[in-house]
Amino acid sequence: MMQPVALVTGSARRIGATIVRTLHADGMRVIIHYRGSQQEAQALATELNQIRPDSAHLLQADLDEPDAVRALAADAISAFGRLDLLVNNASSFYPTPVDTASDDDWTRLVHSNLRAPFILSQSLAPALRAQQGSIINIVDVYAEKPLSQHTLYCMAKAGLAMMTKSLARELGPDIRVNGVSPGPILWPESGQMNQDAITDATALKRCGAPEDIASAVAWLARDAGFVTGQILAVDGGRSLSFQGG
C-alpha cells in the first residue's frame, strides 16, 4: 500500500517544520516547500529520509508569483505521483499602518496568505479528489478580531477563513477543507512588544507549542472524516475574551 503524501507550504522551519515532522511520524510522505530557507529545508529532508528513505522531497517556490505557485503544484504531484493532503501554512506577517501601506505590502501579504492558498487548492483539487484527500489552511485568531496596524494581514487571513468554508462546500464530497487558527504559539521573529498582555488574555495563561498546531492538523487530516468547513481555534482560549494586540 502506497503511503499518503502531504504538501506543507513554508515548512522548512518553525510551525511548518513541526507539522511536517508530525505528519511524517504518522506515516505520510512529505513535500517540504520553502522560499529562502534552503539550508533548513535540506536538513529537515535529510533527517526524515534517514528515518524512512525516499519519504521527504524538497520544492522551492516564491508564493508571491502566481506562475511559480502553479509550477509548485505541478511539481508536487510529480514528486510522488499522488497527493492526499495540502497544508497551506506559509505566511508573511508584519505591520502595515494605514498611512504607509504600499502596493508591495499588498503583494507580499495578500499573495502569500490568500492568493497562493487559493491557486494551490485550485491546481491540486484533481489530485486530491482522486485520493479523497483534504486541505487544511493555517488561519489566525486575527482573522476575526483585528490586530492593530496589521490591516492587510488581517484582511488576508479573514479571506482565507472564508475560502476554507467556501471551498468546503464547493469541493465536497470528495475533498474536505478545514482550518486551524493558532493563538500565541511562536512570537514573530521581528518581536511583539505586548507578549505578556497577549499571554494574560488567554484562558490558560500561557503560550502554546508548535506541536499543538501540528497535532490539530494531524487530527483533521487523519481522524476527522466527518468534519469539513470548520476552523479549529488552537489558542488557549484567547478568542473567548479577545483583546486586540
How are the secondary structure elements laid out?
Blueprint (H helix, E strand, L loop, with lengths): L4 E4 L5 H12 L3 E6 L3 H14 L4 E5 L5 H15 L4 E4 L14 H28 L3 E5 L12 H21 L4 E7 L12 H6 L9 H13 L8 E4 L11
Parallel strand pairs: 1-2, 1-4, 2-3, 4-5, 5-6, 6-7
Task: Give an account of the 3D structure.
With 245 residues, the chain is of the alpha/beta class. The protein has one domain (5-234): Rossmann fold, CATH 3.40.50.720. 44% of the residues lie in helices and 14% in strands. It contains seven helices and seven strands; from the N terminus they run βαβαβαβαβαβααβ. The chain has helices at 14-25, 38-51, 66-80, 103-130, 151-171, 195-200, 210-222; strands spanning 5-8, 29-34, 56-60, 85-88, 134-138, 176-182, 231-234. Strands 3-2-1-4-5-6-7 form a seven-stranded parallel beta sheet, with helices on both faces. β4, α4 (103-130) and β5 (134-138) form a beta-alpha-beta unit. α3 (66-80) runs parallel beside α4. The longest helix has 28 residues, at 103-130. The chain is globular and about 50 Å long. It starts with a strand and ends in an 11-residue tail after the last strand. The mean pLDDT is 91.
Question: Quick recap of the structure?
Answer:
One of its GO terms (molecular function) is pteridine reductase activity. The protein has 245 residues and is an alpha/beta fold.
Alpha-carbon Rg, integer: 17 Å
The CATH homologous superfamily: NAD(P)-binding Rossmann-like Domain
Shape: globular
Q: Span between N and C termini? A: 48 Å
For the sheet with most strands, the description reads: 7 strands, parallel
The CATH first-level class comes to Alpha Beta
Summarize the helix and strand pattern as letters: EHEHEHEHEHEHHE
CATH architecture label: 3-Layer(aba) Sandwich
Give the strand content.
5-15%
* Derived structural class: alpha/beta
Order of strands, widest sheet: 3-2-1-4-5-6-7
Supply the number of structural domains. 1
Poorly predicted ranges = none
Q: What is the CATH topology?
A: Rossmann fold
